[in-house]
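Quick start: what a row looks like.
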Amino acid sequence: QVQLVESGGGLAQAGGSLRLSCAASRSILSINPMGWYRQAPGKQRELVAEVSSLGSNYADSVKGRFTISRDNARNTLYLQMNSLKPEDTAVYYCQAIIAYHTYWGQGTQVTVSS
């Protein structure tokens, strides 16, 4: 099991940046994959970025703008978001898969104004 707590969301202007953090309650060294998802009002939750032992992958809509990284020593997953767009507005969730079980954080709101 693991508890995940996201932070770093907030209000940003278009073109701005935010960095999201996901703090895990245990070591993430062996947790693969870990990822960031988002859900906008009225839309389904979608994958934003994912990192595993095989590398990272991104949604086409965020490629070149967002970077996922992990600090195993701090048990923390990050999402650096640059060149933000209004369409990035959503609740962002951290996800971890352990032994075929999926764990989610409570989410952090990101709002991008035009």
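That is the whole record. The mean pLDDT is 96. The two ends are 40 Å apart (CA to CA).
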